[in-house]
Design a protein that fits this description.
Blueprint lengths: L32 E3 L13 E4 L10 H8 L11 E3 L6 E3 L1 E3 L1 H9 L10 H16 L5 E7 L5 H9 L1 E8 L6 H5 L6 E5 L11 E7 L8 H9 L2 E12 L4 H6 L12 E2 L2 H9 L3 E8 L2 E4 H11 L14 E4 L3 E8 L1
Parallel strand pairs: 6-7, 6-9, 7-8, 9-10
Antiparallel strand pairs: 1-5, 2-3, 3-4, 4-11, 10-15, 12-15, 13-14
């Protein structure tokens, strides 16, 4: 999930029924949308003000509706309204999708690298790996949540001494690719964070565009910290909702979308990480390398345009700041 709920739970989407023959009424099915308090500090959402409203008013009544808006960019995109926490400042959705609907959406989708040449994607992923290498070499047990096709993990193997790979990816269409990522190295591919072995001692933990997708990011970070060795290093990449690009584009900023139940700034990201028994060592801006064609295609799709001439645009590399940040932290 690289430029991308990594914590889908195995739910059926319906309440348990009473025993057959009972005279009690059956429980009402849970609705598709559930309320949320601040996922970072737990403050009630009731008094939070809406800061970013979706232009599209959409009734979610099936998985098909979610699929339509889950991937890609479009002129009139749907997302849940974002509120600002009055306590910690986090920007988040005060209501969001039920867990089984999230799992449905993530289980069978295009990987997030689709449409971008792999050698250009490696350049971006290499910057994330380098951010961690400034503080520690790539060695020991490597855990990544949402690796997509595993570009960062492969770079870690090539540039360090990784003894084991544990890759948590809810998009099962990439699992075969991940299993073959590093022949000769013990590799475990899982669907959910909950499946990570409790007794494992992780040395290097990567979450690239993951925290903004998790419905319970603080709980998940605390759970991951318990699986880390003391002194282990964490690298987190997220969109920066306080960036210049977000201020310029307003509601049309691409990260305002259905996949992101919360979005971070440098301050709110640091607050969340350090509340989970990590010490933040550095937070800085990152750059992304794309092809000119991909950037044009993304921009035009946001305007509702898909011109035929786009296929003739060359795949020239362009490195640009897109308002993303990377934080590196140590398990304490």
């Amino acid at each position: 999930m690289t430029e991308n709920d990594i914590h889908p739970e195995d739910q059926t989407g319906r309440d348990d029924h009473v025993d057959q023959g009972s005279t009690q009424d059956q429980a009402e099915p849970m609705g598709p949308v559930v309320p949320r308090d601040c996922p970072s500090c737990g403050s009630p959402s009731a008094d939070c003000r809406v800061e970013v409203r979706s232009k599209v008013d959409l009734a979610i009544d099936s998985g098909d509706v979610i699929d339509e808006y889950w991937g890609g960019f479009r002129r009139d995109d749907f997302f849940f309204d974002y509120v600002r926490c009055g306590s910690c400042g986090l920007l988040y959705n005060a209501e969001y999708l039920r867990h089984d609907l999230i799992a449905h959406a993530y289980s069978d989708m295009e990987d997030n690298t689709s449409g971008v040449p792999q050698h250009l994607l490696r350049k971006t992923q290499s910057r994330y790996v380098a951010a961690m290498e400034k503080f520690a070499p790539m060695d020991g047990v490597y855990l990544e949540i949402g690796p997509d096709i595993g570009l960062a993990a492969k770079l870690a193997v090539e540039r360090g001494s990784i003894s084991k790979l544990v890759l948590v990816e809810p998009n099962r269409t990439t699992h075969d690719t991940l299993r073959l990522l590093a022949p000769g190295i013990d590799t475990v591919v899982l669907d959910s964070i909950d499946e990570v072995e409790p007794g494992i001692q992780v040395d290097r933990l990567f979450l690239v565009h993951v925290l903004d997708h998790l419905t319970n990011p603080r709980d998940d970070l605390i759970g991951l910290r318990k699986r880390m060795a003391a002194g282990g290093i964490l690298a987190v990449v997220v969109h920066n909702e306080a960036s210049f690009l977000r201020r310029v584009l307003g509601r049309k900023w691409p990260p305002f979308r259905l996949q992101h139940p919360q979005l971070f700034s440098r301050r709110t990201l640091t607050t969340l990480i350090e509340s989970s028994d990590f010490k933040v060592l550095k937070v800085r801006s990152t750059f992304n390398t794309f092809s000119v064609r991909h950037l044009l295609a993304t921009g035009l799709s946001m305007l509702g345009l898909e011109p035929r001439w786009l296929s003739r645009v060359p795949e020239l590399a362009l490195t640009v700041p897109l308002g993303n940040i990377v934080a590196v932290a140590e398990a304490v």
